Amino acid sequence: MLTSRRLILAHFWLAFAVFGFALVLGAWQMFVRSPLHTWISNPEWYYRSLTAHGTVMGYVFPTLVAMGFGYAISEVSLGRPLVGRRWAWAGFWLIAVGAVMAMIPVALGRASVLYTFYPPLIGNPFYYLGIVLVVVGSWIWVALMSINLRVWKRDNPGVAVPLPMFANVAGSYLWAWTAVGAALELLLQILPVAFGLRSTIDAGLSRVFFSWTLHAIVYFWLMPTYIAYYTIVPRAIGGKIYSDTMARISFILFLVVAMPIGMHHTFADPQVGAGFKFIHSAFTALVALPTLLTVFTICASVEIAARMRGGRGPFGWIGALPWSNPIMMAVAFSFVMLGFGGAGGLVNMSYQLDSSIHNTQWITGHFHLIFGGAIVIMYFAIAYDLWPHLTGRAMRDLRLMRVQLWLWFVGMIVTTFPWHWVGILGMPRRMAYYDYADPAIAPQALSVALSAVGGFILLASGLLFILVLLRAQRAPREDAGAYRFAAALHPPVLTPALNSYALWIALMVGLTVTNYGFPIAQLALRQDTSVPAVYVGADP
Amino acid sequence: MSEDSVLSPRNAWFRRAVGVTAGIFVATALGGFVLLPYAQPDLKVAGLWDAICSAAGVVRTPSAQAPAEPDARLTKVVVTSALPATPAPDAIGRGATLAQQCAICHGPTGVSRADSPNLAGQYAAAIYKQLMDFKTGARVNAVMTPFAKDLSERDMQDLASYYAFLPRLPGYHPVQEKPAPRIVINGAPMRGIAPCGSCHGALDNKTGSPWLEGQPAAYVKAQLFAFASGERRNDISQQMRNIARRMTPEEIQLASEWYASQPSTTIHTN
Q: What is the C-alpha separation between A472 and B1, in angstroms, rounded?
């Protein structure tokens, strides 16, 4: 049951439009700092573009996808129209206005601070206010998801919450809590300085606040992808979910352990005690657990589909899979990238191994592979799967879709593998300029050039994706039937702990207090930890 | 079993989830706060509590010994964008009167004809800092030091406000069309030199850095050589000394001449 089609389409279209815009910037950045192009002679242009790319790709694009997909999940899996559609539109417009408000100072060169803010760098206050609006818009979505679930539960006592909605609301709660860190940073640290009320800033405390958000935000980006793994993939390839319980446990584990682990981003920061870094490192290792559970469950679900299609033997069933189905391709590509990206992540989370790649291009390669690769390719799959139901029109460009997914996969590998490599060689990240004529880094020129070529492959794939959606929007009308999510092999049994969130939210907040309470209190109470702000571009 | 009962010690899920989470936390805390401090050979801990405090990042009290004194006076000015503090209403007028004694070198309108720095429209923070450094002896100059010695805190703030208030004069820039040298726009990344323009105007400005466009080439050049030789040392954290030392004489010449030929750009703080 999809009644809020316009609302969901608006979210997806805005998401993919800003994605296309930021993708062009990304490819341009790869190109101008590679040896394929002479240096543009002004780092400001590079950092301006980088700030816009990061802000759009990190805050605006995935948030809109999660929201649009969330509304679709709520209507389809609960089988009832969305409660609070007007509020949902208000949230959408807050994000649209916030994104424009943030991008104007960036375009004017007044906020080239990169999307992670980098205090003591301070940009124009409207940049930060725009991001605050985006977050507030997404909090409306969080509230709506919670309300819709509550209304459904009231009308369906004693029935297990459908898995897609259970996962969706878990993701929304995770986002609500994880965004608090960046919100505290913006409201307590950055905005007073950006408005000129203070001229010094506690950069260390700001970074600790941001680490609260910075890691779990990745899991918020990941949620739509994981929901698609569990609830779209098995249905699209003609199978069933191997274990509904395992799926619920995975999402709950994300809720509990995705957040109190962010300090592995501050391993090199002096303001955090080594003991807390160790705790965060250990908890980061735990977050691999729900991913491993998911990989197991999805492989099992896919195997069920293959055997139902007549697959035989220990590995023979793999050939029986519907490989020409774009969803099947997307999930396979996504798993390959998740495997490599996850292996790289194990290096990043290790206190000792991190020191060899900290702040190098390895990190940039890592999060592009995980987010741009494993996660975003499933966003494509979600759009392809939902589109006929949203537009009421046929989607016949299967060939184009396959080409698009292949290009994205190949492009991401070609972009990120050399990127990791130059990181191991020691190339620092966040640099606008590299002098490849210097013998010390001349051997890295080839890898960087390859990486830039990959960037253009990704750009071609991204534009092709938008073309496929546009063509589908103009295709002849055709009823796609009712949208439905995958069913579980064994219907879910009502387990109260796996149908509610109170216990898991309590654990999430509790771990935040134990893992973040002391470092934050210590920095907040000390008076001598602030440094002069560095205003970017101009004023005040 | 209702959902409310999940949050109760009677519920098996609650007991297990809380127990496992607390167990993992205690185990990792023991590792991070007890095991690791003792395992580090070069970290001397006086006892268990000392180990825990060390791992938690509690700041230790410094030793009672007096810190080693540097062999020359260093700048004591802490540069913030609020420097100098909000000027008194009559600051500019008072500064103008005081500035009459500066006019012989820095020009009656703050534009020098004697290869002294042009002060008209210079940032107040930059002027204040230099006056303060001359006064404390962190920067030494045969002409400036005697002038600065007798200035009060208020005098220095007012002079800074006055010069910051004066309009920047474009002056005569016959060769401003020449392209910016690489050292100004790119710096020299392999030698750790940031672009001149990222702090001193042309690309960006950073708090506390003076803008350099239209400044006399001879002055800029002399200061860079003074930083390189260590003769001038009032830069914060040796920023300019580290840069100037690594610049070649040709780069110093190019940067000085290029800045001298430029009208002031728009990238400036108020």
A: 48
**Prediction ipTM score:** 0.90
Is there a domain that residue A54 lies in?
yes
For tokens 């030698």, the residue is B191
Domains of chain B from N-terminus onward: 6-56 (no CATH), 91-165 (1.10.760.10), 182-260 (1.10.760.10)
Residue B214: alpha-carbon gap to chain centroid: 22
Dihedral, CA of residue A334, residue A339, residue A344 and residue A346, to nearest 10: 120
Q: CB B100: neighbour CB atoms within 10 A?
A: 9
Residue B266: CB partners within 8 Å, gap ≥ 6?
none
Please give the residue of chain B at the shortest CA–CA distance from A278: B32
The residue of chain B with its CA nearest to that of A517 is: B56
Instruction: Enumerate the active-site residues of A.
Output: 215, 219, 366-368, 429-430
Asked if B14 lies within 8 A of A497 by C-beta distance, the reply is: yes
Q: Is A83 domain-assigned? A: yes
pTM for the complete prediction?
0.84
User: Could you tell me how far CA A422 lies from the centroid of its own chain?
Assistant: 24
Q: Do A278 and B203 touch (CB under 8 A)?
A: no
Range(s) of the domain holding residue A176: 5-535
Q: Does residue A64 sit within a domain?
A: yes
The nearest CA of chain A is from the CA of B198 a distance in Å of: 9
Backbone angles phi, psi at B90, to 5 degrees: -95, 15
Q: Report H helices in A116-161.
A: 125-155
**Segment 168-187 of chain B within 8 Å of chain A by CB:** 180, 182, 185-186
Per-residue pLDDT of chain A (540 residues; tens, 9 = 90+): 799 999 999 999 999 999 999 999 999 999 999 999 987 777 889 999 999 999 999 999 999 999 999 999 999 999 999 999 999 999 999 999 999 999 999 999 899 999 999 999 999 999 999 999 999 999 999 999 999 999 999 999 989 999 999 999 999 999 999 999 999 999 999 999 999 899 889 999 999 999 999 999 999 999 999 999 999 999 999 999 999 999 999 999 999 999 899 999 999 998 999 999 999 999 999 999 999 999 999 999 999 999 999 999 899 999 999 999 999 999 999 999 999 999 999 999 988 899 899 999 999 999 999 999 999 999 999 999 999 999 999 998 999 999 999 999 999 999 999 999 999 998 999 988 888 887 878 899 999 999 999 999 999 999 999 999 999 999 999 988 899 999 999 988 888 899 999 999 999 999 999 999 999 999 999 888 898 888 887 543
* Residues of B with Cβ-Cβ distance to A441 under 8 angstroms: 190
What backbone phi and psi angles, to 5 degrees, belong to A201?
-145, 145
Q: Is residue A540 part of a domain?
A: no
Burial of A18 (0-12, 13-18, 19+ CB in 10 A): buried
